[in-house]
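TA notes, week 10

Several of you asked for a full example with nothing omitted. So below is the full record: structure tokens for the whole chain, then the designed sequence directly under it. When grading your own attempts, check the secondary structure regions first.
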């Protein structure tokens, strides 16, 4: 028997909040990735790791906020905590692989395509592994063509987002990219949900409390990722060069994907060698006249 699926049991509340969470994670992750391209050593690794975790956590939180509005009328839904958190780990690791590739080699060419593909597959893997953590009196079935379409959307969205991060432009540029990324990730989620049908093992009858059972379980599970996103936002906010789009650190080696204007705004310390040479040159000028 086919179950009656309702993906919007709370109306537009869950889709809108889910979209905002995807935008938040995307904005933080893209700004961290942008910052990493203009520093070197451990700082670069730190920014890339923070960006990976922010994007992964934002996408994961988006998915399960949206799932709060999902129910099958004939049976209650529960979630296996181990599989649920495994989907979070998969998202962070695979997104991290893609971001580290782009952060180390630049957001162009093979690195962008490969890194974006891995990141997109990580997003799709998180979605379907999270769905595998659902526990209900039935079997989940998917339409293959629609699933393939959702994976393509995830990959294209990831490539576009990483390309935007590699442009190293201003804060508003990253905000715009994160809004587009939020639309693409939410579109991937609901495309994947459109591929879903539920074959029930038995009829339990309509349960008016079904909608609250999954929400009551998912809400505590999301506290950790939400707190992390808040802390990541604080880190980004306390880096004024991230907000203003101005970077005073000396750029690392010229890599593809970093425009030349990104290296133009370099503020050197007055005691640096360049500053000393400049003062010496000025002091010698009157003597040469």
């Amino acid at each position: 028997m086919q179950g009656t699926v309702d993906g919007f049991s709370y109306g537009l509340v869950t889709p809108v909040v889910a979209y905002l969470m995807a935008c938040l994670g995307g904005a933080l992750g893209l700004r961290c990735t942008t910052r990493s391209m203009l520093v070197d050593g451990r700082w670069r690794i730190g920014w890339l790791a923070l960006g990976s975790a922010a994007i992964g956590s934002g996408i994961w939180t988006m998915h399960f906020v949206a799932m709060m509005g999902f129910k099958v009328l004939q049976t209650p839904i529960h979630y296996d905590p181990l599989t649920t958190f495994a989907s979070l780990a998969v998202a962070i690791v695979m997104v991290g692989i893609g971001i580290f590739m782009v952060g180390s080699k630049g957001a162009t060419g093979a690195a962008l395509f490969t890194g974006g593909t891995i990141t997109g597959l990580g997003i799709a893997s998180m979605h379907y592994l999270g769905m595998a953590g659902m526990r209900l009196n039935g079997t989940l079935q998917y339409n293959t063509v629609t699933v393939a379409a959702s994976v393509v959307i995830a990959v294209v969205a990831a490539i576009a987002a990483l390309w935007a991060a590699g442009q190293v432009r201003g804060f508003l540029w990253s905000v715009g990219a994160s809004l587009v990324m939020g639309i693409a990730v939410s579109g991937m989620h609901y495309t994947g949900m459109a591929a879903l049908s539920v074959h029930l093992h038995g009829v339990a009858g309509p349960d008016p409390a079904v909608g609250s059972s999954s929400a009551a379980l998912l809400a505590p599970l999301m506290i950790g990722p939400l707190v992390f996103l808040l802390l990541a936002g604080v880190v980004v906010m306390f880096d004024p060069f991230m907000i203003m789009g101005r970077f005073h650190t000396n750029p690392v080696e010229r890599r593809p994907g970093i425009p030349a204007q990104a290296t133009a705004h370099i503020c050197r310390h007055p005691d640096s060698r360049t500053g000393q040479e400049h003062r010496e040159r000025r002091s010698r000028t009157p003597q040469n006249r």
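The beta strands are 5-6, 71-72, 78-79, 134-135, 138-142, 196-200. Use that as a sanity check on your answer.
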